[in-house]
Amino acid sequence: PGGGAAAARDGVPPVSRRCGLAAGRSYSGGGAYPSVSLTCPLPGVPKAVFAAAESRERFETRVTVLENGLRVASQNKFGQFCTVGILVNSGSRHEAKYLSGISHFLEKLAFSSTAQFGSKDEILLTLEKHGGICDCQASRDTIMYAVSADARGLDTVVNLLADVTLQPRFSDEEMEMTRMAIRFELEDLNMRPDPEPLLTEMIHAAAFRDNTVGLNRFCPVENTDKIDRAVLHSYLSSYYTPDRMVLAGVGIEHEHLVECARKYLLGVQPVWGSGQGRAVDRSVAQYTGGIIKVEKDMSDVSLGPTPIPELTHIMIGLESCSFLEDDFIPFAVLNMMMGGGGSFSAGGPGKGMFTRLYLNVLNRHHWMYNATSYHHSYEDTGLLCIHASADPKQVREMVEIITREFILMAGAVGEVELERAKTQLKSMLMMNLESRPVIFEDVGRQVLATSTRKLPHELCALISQVKPSDIKRVVTKMLHKKPAVAALGDLTDLPTYEHIQAALSSKDGRLPRLYRLFR
């Protein structure tokens, strides 16, 4: 008690003395300058609330299945904005019984007038109130309607998505505008300096001839006038059913999303009626292999001050595996290890300048314009391919270089290059998953395919486990298949399909020698 009185006599309260507030130094004006300790609360300042480490459940993807079969999936991500969308298990691979190009039409018609919204402008104005944007993308196996907006507008966003997906009007004016847009896109596709989208179509058509993922993703010109509202409704009645849909959201509370789904997506009568359409096409992809050639004059593709030289483009592919198989991860690492790019890529860390297609192809053969590896994977198959381009006079040599790289994949895999590929794949995965729309697509696609989601740390653990023997095993299996070949440009010196197949069956990847009497 005596100590407290003494402290009070000094003019410093006892609590302040204990917390290190004893007057030691002084301001230039003469006042006392307290020595503040952070171990005690400051007088008059509200008590601080610190963020505690949350339980793991907060970061896991939660999935709820509604009574009608619709799956609702969400992922927590802190921030003011959310990305919400509906993914449908429907795409160009399901169009075998219908006119080709329906998915292309649906992608272009998305977010047009609906039962509640009179026009596209009305939809955009509604979204603008919540700072929102919308987008629709159609691929070979999925159609995705997505909105990014302020999380407080979730009710409005889910209502809009339900209306866009189940109650579109498809007015005559909108259908005509879509036909014009598709015709323009098809013209543009054939005139682009970068033929990669066209080659991707060709390699799929060659690898899976006339079935599933080999069906054309773009609407053929002759079908633009044949596709009308009745055709679209017939297709939608088969494929736009709740059991083939996922409502996915990132940056929102799961309970709130489920509540909105029940309100707007449960017991809703779609505009095409509830009658059962044709049976759903559940065909499994049949890999055929083969070649598709398009002779085309590429000399005037990009005129101007610095024209792109005339090039011939080749893509060679082999069947890999589906994304549901265990071998998917070794194939992803292999694709990263092959890497590649254009001959004018700027170097730097993480740009893949140490990948095989740079070291063995672009750095050694100055005349090669491009060499890039791609891996396309679907729920029942996959395709690993290499795209290369060079001057038409060097097509034969270019094909041999690529076939040799395929054969070398089955050879020795260096520990350093494998570790580099694995690290690069993990860093790409983690960097991409920093973006909210990418997380949304990942959640939606995984839940649509498997009803669950593998988290990034699980995928990274699987990548770390890949050994050189895994790469050799998957490549050896892949090389037993027939190749798929797509060729575009001046194809005078293109080797025959049989010669390319022979090179991929040989020990060194060399093409059979040609003996000509007159050169």
TrEMBL record:
UniProt keyword list: Membrane, Mitochondrion, Mitochondrion inner membrane, Transit peptide
Annotated Peptidase M16 N-terminal domain residues: 71-220
Metal-binding found in the keyword field: no
Main subcellular location of this protein, as a coarse class: mitochondrion
InterPro entries assigned to the protein according to its UniProt record, in alphabetical order: Metalloenz_LuxS/M16, MPP/UQCRC_Complex, Pept_M16_N, Pept_M16_Zn_BS, Peptidase_M16_C
Localization of this protein: Mitochondrion inner membrane; Mitochondrion matrix
SUPFAM superfamilies found in the cross-reference section: LuxS/MPP-like metallohydrolase
Superkingdom assignment: Eukaryota
GO BP term (any one): protein processing involved in protein targeting to mitochondrion
GO cellular component, one term: mitochondrial matrix
Location of the Peptidase M16 C-terminal domain: 226-425
Record GO terms (molecular function): metal ion binding; metalloendopeptidase activity
Family listed: Belongs to the peptidase M16 family.
Function as written in the Swiss-Prot or TrEMBL entry: Substrate recognition and binding subunit of the essential mitochondrial processing protease (MPP), which cleaves the mitochondrial sequence off newly imported precursors proteins.
Description of how the protein assembles with itself and partners: Heterodimer of PMPCA (alpha) and PMPCB (beta) subunits, forming the mitochondrial processing protease (MPP) in which PMPCA is involved in substrate recognition and binding and PMPCB is the catalytic subunit.
Protein name (database record): Mitochondrial-processing peptidase subunit alpha
Species whose genome carries this gene: Alaudala cheleensis
Gene this protein is translated from: Pmpca
